[in-house]
Prior knowledge:
Shape: globular
Low-confidence stretches: none
Structural class: alpha+beta
Strand content: 5-15%
Distance between the termini: 41 Å
Radius of gyration: 15 Å
Mean pLDDT: 92
Helix content: 40-55%
Amino acid sequence: MRRKSFAEDRCPVARTLDRVGDPWSMLILRDAGFGSTRFDQFEASLGIAPNMLSRRLETLVEAGMLERQLYSEKPERFEYLLTPRGRDFQPVLAALKSFGERHYPKRRAR
C-alpha cells in the first residue's frame, strides 16, 4: 500500500516531509552531515537493510538532498554527498536533536 503523497500540498511542512519524513532518511542526512558518504558507512552506522538503504538514498538523490558521485570505476562505486539543499536541512536536524534532548532524554540503565 502506497502512502499519500504530499509533494503538491499547499503546506511547505507537508511538502518537506514528503521528501524526508521517514526516520531512515533523516538519519542518513544526519550521518551525511557528520561526514559519511559511502554506502557501507551508512549501512554500518544505521544497521539498515541494504535494499532499504538503496531506496532511501535514491529518494534523497531525487529530492535533491544528496548527490551521487562515482568514486571507483572497477568495481563501480558511488558516494553520496550533501547538496546545498541537504546542507540547508542540517539546522532542522539540529533542532530535532535539541528537542529530543530536552523532551526525550536518554534513560539511564538500572
